[in-house]
Amino acid sequence: MSLLTVCNAGVGLMGPLELQSLDTMRQILEVNLFGTIQTIQAFLPEMKAQGQGRILVTGSTGGLHGLPFNEVYCASKFAIEGACESLAVLLQHFNIHVSLIECGPVNTDFLVNLQKVELGDTSLEQLDTHTLGLYEKYLQHCDSVFQNAAQDTEDIVKVFLDAIQSPSPLFRYFTSGVVPPLTQLKITQPDGSQCIRSMSKIIFSSEEK
Amino acid sequence: MSLLTVCNAGVGLMGPLELQSLDTMRQILEVNLFGTIQTIQAFLPEMKAQGQGRILVTGSTGGLHGLPFNEVYCASKFAIEGACESLAVLLQHFNIHVSLIECGPVNTDFLVNLQKVELGDTSLEQLDTHTLGLYEKYLQHCDSVFQNAAQDTEDIVKVFLDAIQSPSPLFRYFTSGVVPPLTQLKITQPDGSQCIRSMSKIIFSSEEK
């Protein structure tokens, strides 16, 4: 039997950073980062003991480049990238594959569950008008992106199945099939595998062939 | 008077992920991520009001690529990258510059203050021998890197001063002068500025000339 761990939980947080409380920020990290890590921790010893397994984690383009008014959300999604890259370097020595399924906007309840500072919120009264104007613009941009570019969950499931069925899964999968241009600016080796192998060679080189 | 915020606090955490408690993981994020964000939050309204300012944050190569046995540390440093990139996209509209000073190993008390699972720790008795062997190898690698490649704090201070004195600071500075090869695999535009400008254009384009 093949062991498969899928980590998919995630919540959003949108609004000017000045208005975010420490408790709210902690909650986002609790779900998005620690939820993911604790899920992996629960299955890791058994996977290592069996010398096989797959760990699939839902990533986000917000984990690959910053998004204004999403400082804490991006922090949590970047954090997942860091944890997964670190794990992937180690776990290839156990025949355990880590894969990030990097999603853009998807038609789920994400927008419903998203914690967002709404334009009518009284907290916005503390804010300078320039920030408020940019925030309005950002929300419009965001609505239009979700209306025009959001993928259906079935399309995302297909990518998960690709990763699950592949004999040698990549580290990073982009759900739309193309690497978004901003991510391309940051990542020359989009599947991430070369980076992980190089790191392993540097550190554990006496083990490599 | 020019407003300058410097965020430098950070702690490390090293050891097999299976052995990390939730409380320990939370502490690392509390210092490395929330400490940084709260410092920025404290000065942001005044910087915005003055329409100028500089935010300098100590980053780490561990925020740019994963390191085995450093899942939580890398998560926290990646998180800082995400928060700072997000902020930088917005704050260029306020004439506030965000810069990350990306350090490799530095001769500070970092190693003394580092939370590390030591080889004699009883907690390691729960661990499989393969992981233990790789962890020993990692610790040796780490010692040799710090002995052979660690920079002095004076060299780092010079980079901070460069960023402070530059009329148009970059987003990302590498303290050794060269982008580490693994980071190069990930970042084609090493100073990060193009990525930030592109993001801003996409979202706030009606403001751009």
What does this entry look like structurally?
The structure is a homodimer of 209-residue chains. With 209 residues, chain A is an alpha/beta fold. The first copy, chain A, has one domain (4-204): Rossmann fold (3-Layer(aba) Sandwich). Chain A has helices spanning 22-50, 71-91, 110-113, 129-149, 153-165, 181-186, 193-204, and strands spanning 4-7, 13-14, 53-60, 96-103, 115-116, 172-174. Chain A has a 4-stranded parallel beta sheet with strand order 1-3-4-6, with helices on both faces. In chain A, strands 2-5 form a two-stranded parallel ribbon. In chain A, helix 1 (22-50) runs parallel beside helix 2 (71-91) and helix 2 packs across helix 7. The longest helix of chain A is centred in the N-terminal third of the chain and has 29 residues, at 22-50. The model of chain A has no long low-confidence stretch (mean pLDDT 87). Chains A, B: Pfam families: adh_short. Chains A, B: This is 17-beta hydroxysteroid dehydrogenase type 1 isoform 2.
Q: In which range does the helix fraction of chain A lie?
A: 40-55%
CATH homologous superfamily descriptor of chain A: NAD(P)-binding Rossmann-like Domain
CATH topology of chain A: Rossmann fold
Rg of chain A, Å, rounded: 19 Å
Strand order of the largest sheet of chain A: 1-3-4-6
Mean pLDDT of chain A: 87
Largest sheet of chain A: 4 strands, parallel
Largest interface: A-B, 72 and 72 residues
What percentage of the residues of chain A does DSSP assign to strands (E)?
5-15%
Number of spatially distinct domains of chain A = 1
Instruction: Name the overall outline of chain A.
Output: elongated
Structural class of chain A: alpha/beta
User: Class of chain A, according to the CATH hierarchy?
Assistant: Alpha Beta
| Low confidence ranges of chain A | none
Give me the strand/helix succession of chain A: EEHEHEHEHHEHH
